[in-house]
Amino acid sequence: MTTIEAAAAPKAQRRGLRALLLRDYLVLVISVLIVLLPLVYLLFSSFKSPGDLATTQFQLMPETWSTANYDQALDQLPFGRFFLNSAIVTVVGAGLKVLLAIFTAYGLVFCEFPGKTYIFWAVLATLMVPPQVTVLPNFVFISGLGGVDTYWGLILPGLATGFGTFLLRQAFMQLPPEIMEAAELDGAGHWHRLWHHVVPMAGPSIATVALVNVVYEWNDYLWPLVITNDPDMMTLARGITLLRNSDNLAASVGPIMAGTVMVLVPVLLLFAVLQRHIVNGFTQGGVKG
Q1: Alpha-carbon distance 252 to 275, whole Å?
Q2: What is the model's pTM?
Q3: What share of the chain is helix, strand, coil (3-state, %, to 5)?
Q4: Are 180 and 106 in contact (CB under 8 A)?
Q5: C-alpha 275, offset from chain centre
Q6: What distance, in Å, lies between the first and last C-alpha atoms of the chain?
Q7: Residue range 217-232, pLDDT digits in tens
Q8: Rounded to an integer, what distance in angstroms lies between the CA atom of residue 238 and that of residue 155?
Q9: Largest Cα span, the chain
């Protein structure tokens, strides 16, 4: 290689690196815009007047900012009751899901029993089943037990979480076996090992499962729509459908958007505060055979 070629090689590498970074950042920016633009449009539209919303031309910013849509939504609906229902369903439902996922994953990793592999395959198979498929049989079962318009009817059908079991199983398999062996030699039983060793070491993964389930329970719309008819038992996601005015649909668009913003804000703030746990949790729960 000549001196000129040797000097040109680093420049070519730098150009190639800049082109690669430019391409990656361009893809990242486009992906972020695809996710954020609908949310931004929703937020701005919640401050628009009915005339701004009725136009056929795309208009991102409102011509006149107004909180009338929020005032109308708060006047028409008992948001305090809806918020309480959503909080109860989210806390109890997500909490029970995390507990069941912890127990199931611990059994699949640290307990020996016949058919353990097949049970894990069955758990994975549940991830392939769309939740919409189970709505009808769940409704027939829960309604037959008298669970319509009840908290337990809202919570019970969604307690099994294949995703949480899978992620925690993978995380538990990454834990140092020496610590578990030492605890067993010291006479620690399964209950002690679970809460004093496994759970503290797998904290990021457990936080990830908890956060994902909280977001899912808070935003769940289909099941509360099916199982609740009484406004006193509706969650926020279900309750905002009462803002729909069949006689004047155009006039109800603004309040619906305002209600949707009020539903999304709490979970978006929670996600923004705890999002680093998702990265740590997925890293800790990396797939291992």
Answers
A1: 34
A2: 0.81
A3: 80, 0, 20
A4: no
A5: 11
A6: 47
A7: 998 999 999 999 998 9
A8: 14
A9: 85
